[in-house]
Amino acid sequence: MAQVQKGVPNNGAVQQRGGNGDQRASPAERLMPQRLLDGLQTVSQRASPAHATSHSRAFLCVALTREEARSFVPPRLSFGMRALNFLFVPLFKQWVAGPKLEDALREVAKVNARFENAVAIINFLGEHYKATVQVRRAMFEYYNAIDYIAERGLRSSVSIKPSKFGFDVQDFQGTPEEQREWCFANMRAIVEYAAKKGVFVWLDMEGSNYTQFTTYSYTRLLCEFDNVGIVLQANMRRTMRDLKELLGLDRDTFFAPKIRLCKGIYNEPPEIAFQTRAEVNDNMYALQSQLYITAPADVWRVTASHDDTFLDNAARLAQNCSGSVCRSQMLRGVRTKLFEEIAASGGWIEVYTPYGEDMIPYSVRRARESPQLRGLLVRGALNWFYDKFYPH
Q1: Quick check: is 107 in a domain?
Q2: Rounded to an integer, what distance in angstroms lies between the CA atom of residue 209 and that of residue 42?
Q3: Which of 101, 154, 161, 186 would disulfide-bridge 204, Cβ 3.0–4.6 Å?
Q4: What's the pLDDT at 103?
Q5: Residue 148: which CATH number?
Q6: Angle at alpha carbon of residue 42, lines to 40 and 45, rounded to 5°
Q7: DSSP letter at 260?
Q8: How many CB atoms lie within 10 A of CB 86?
Q9: pTM exceeds 0.85, yes or no
């Protein structure tokens, strides 16, 4: 598969476009598709897009810094959650590196050592945080992960999402628009710190409640940083338009986008999402064609899938993308043999490597998809616990 560079880009010092200091976001927003700005009226209950622009320049909400994170003491899990993790760790290990960052770093090192063209994506498990202390914990984990990736020279990026950085917290002291800006400031702080350390960051896409804010946040980040990518979901009707708008961003103001396509796992209403497998598959093929064929050479082309047809299609399209970064991406523990075959054949591939104590919801989603666990009592118990205690 065609490649520009090996592993994760080393960006060195933070690169910025669109001005300095408090003016850095305004030129970018003037060039953003109006649809992105209009949608924030719903996301943040703002009166007008102009209000969003003024908050972008002011940065009224300050993110947790690396120095502050050093003194943060992570809260201890309840006895019940620790007991559940202990009981199910042997099962979860297929999909989750372990409860601690060191577990993920160790697994990444193994993959890097075995396959020179394999890149990891480290993710601290957890989502839909309702308390600011949870956001502080996430910042603590990601600052540490970035430090260790850089210090150990690992080929790994990190993965972040809005619901982990303050989008949903209920104890924020401020207005709704200030809370959204705080969420963005937290994500921006991680991207900025990662840029200084030469580490790449993926901005994950969540359910439709977050799509507008995530796309808008990525566009803002792209006017400053070259070390950040976004995930787009084929099941959403809006995704083709989002993709075209990202590909059409002015290069004098924005860095080239890095885009990863996936099918999407969230159940969405028919007015905003395709409902049948055939529709989603057709849109995935169309998005791949748009990304791999029409995008400029400096755009990253990544396909996240465990479906041979999409991976084969990506490999075929990548043959005509000389000089571009083209990769596949898979989840840890899912179709491991296929992952090894792609890596052994010389194709660049990323492996999603999650860790953390909050491993039950992620692992249950993987268990539901596993043919080996169908009909087993343990799967039924996990499903009951997940449906009863986790929002989804």
Answers
A1: yes
A2: 10
A3: 161
A4: 94
A5: 3.20.20.220
A6: 90
A7: E
A8: 10
A9: no
Q: In one letter, which amino acid is 140? A: F
Sequence letter at residue 177: E
DSSP 251: T
Would residue 128 count as lying in a domain? yes
Residue 43 falls within a domain, yes or no? yes
Nearest in space to 291 (alpha carbons), one of 240, 215, 343: 240
- Answer yes or no: is pLDDT of 351 > 70: yes
d(Cα 122, Cα 101) in Å, to the nearest integer? 9
Say if CB 104 and CB 354 are below 8 A apart.
Answer: yes
Would you say residue 292 has pLDDT above 70? yes
Residue type, 184: F
What six digits make up the tokens of 148? 């260790």
d(CA 185, CA 58): 11
Q: Write out the two tokens for 390.
A: 């986790």
pLDDT in tens, 109-146: 999 999 999 999 999 998 889 998 889 999 999 999 99
pLDDT tens per residue, range 22-41: 333 444 455 555 555 554 44
Q: Considering the domain boundaries, does residue 86 fall inside one? A: yes
Tokens 């900025």, located at residue: 192
Angle, CA 190 vertex, CA 157 and CA 219 arms, to 5° = 85
Instruction: Show the tokens assigned to 251.
Output: 């290069």
* Domain membership of residue 49 as a residue range: 21-358
Distances (CA, A) of 55 to 16, 24, 25, 298, 362: 19, 12, 10, 31, 34
Whether the CA torsion 309, 202, 196, 101 is positive or negative: it is: negative
Q: Which of 297, 304, 286 is nearest to 323 (CA)?
A: 297
Indicate the number of domains in the chain: 1
